[in-house]
Design goal:
Number of strands: 5
CATH superfamily of the largest domain: Ribonuclease H-like superfamily/Ribonuclease H
Strand order of the largest sheet: 3-2-1-4-5
CATH class of the largest domain: Alpha Beta
Order of helices and strands: HHHHHHEEEHEHEHHH
Oligomer: single chain
Distance between the termini: 34 Å
Shape: globular
CATH architecture of the largest domain: 2-Layer Sandwich
Helix content: 40-55%
Largest sheet: 5 strands, mixed
Strand content: 5-15%
Length: 279
């Protein structure tokens, strides 16, 4: 049952069952009932747009260097505020960590399976990720699902929140349309480590879960490159003001990207042609 539906089932006034017990029975966090989303200020939206461009320019910048870059541009902003904005935007600094331990494939963490893996066919590996999308009066998030062999975007969706249900629904529609991959790779974000996501992927039985190492955005390099491409070649040029405008911009570009835009890494062919030819 969708989370929004479960929230609406909670009776705050006349029910003989306490709100705390209702939340427990429905699997809803009680704090979420009282939380009212607040809109980002115009100043923060401007800072976030600049942070997004700085990140695409050099993803190795951490909070210290990011704050210095903004200060050089005349913005009075501290490192702590930059860190908060980067967390909202899901910006992960790229750097190498000493590999002193092996990630334990437990309930919420799974090993990275793509290291030294030769991907030779479609639906061998799918890559999932979420990217912050700046707009004139706000921001949204873009979820994309890529077939790594062909670089084809098989599924995508927009949302103003990053709930696990959104991710699972988009993945489910993609699986229903194109079949099951052998491996699904993502980062270790809360949406991809949630019970809802993990349980769904496990229900596919033959699909294995792979996750990037912590602090290793480069492990998902192909889909990160796609996000850079759609932002610089489309979104930043047209600057959408509403969610509907952003949806049409993304829809047009992804269709062009899949069906007409040649890629040198796949023999100067469009991704969808390579996906269909080899499928």
């Amino acid at each position: 049952m969708p989370l929004d539906t479960r929230r609406k089932m909670i009776d705050r006034q006349e029910s003989p069952i306490s709100i705390c017990h209702q939340c427990e029975l429905l699997g809803v966090a009680r704090s979420s009932l009282y939380y009212t989303p607040s809109k980002a200020s115009n100043k923060d939206l401007q800072l976030m747009e600049m942070l997004d461009k700085l990140y695409l320019e050099d993803p190795t910048r951490g909070t210290r260097r990011m704050s210095h870059e903004l200060q050089k541009k005349g913005h009075k902003v501290g490192r702590c505020h930059v860190r908060s904005l980067m967390q909202i935007m899901r910006l992960k600094t790229v750097y190498c960590r000493p590999r002193t331990t092996i990630i334990d494939p437990s309930r919420y963490k799974y090993p990275y399976l793509l290291r030294n893996l030769e991907i030779q066919k479609p639906n061998h590996v799918w890559s999932l990720d979420i990217s912050y999308i700046p707009m004139v009066r706000g921001y949204m998030y873009l979820l994309a699902i890529m077939d790594v062999y062909s670089r084809c975007i098989l599924g995508w969706s927009l949302s103003n929140t990053m709930e696990a249900e959104w991710v699972v629904n988009t993945l489910r529609m993609t699986v229903n349309k194109y079949g099951r991959p052998e491996i699904i790779n993502s980062d270790q974000g809360s949406q991809f480590t949630s019970d809802e996501y993990v349980d769904y992927v496990k229900s596919l039985e033959t699909v294995r879960i792979s996750m990037d190492g912590k602090g290793r955005a480069i492990d998902n390099v192909y889909i990160e490159r796609f996000f850079r491409t759609i932002k610089y070649e489309k979104i930043y040029l047209e600057r959408p003001e509403t969610g509907n405008e952003l949806y049409h911009i993304c829809s047009q570009f992804i269709q062009y990207y899949n069906e007409r835009r040649d890629h040198s890494s796949i023999g100067n062919n469009p991704p969808f042609i390579v996906y269909q030819r080899a499928a």
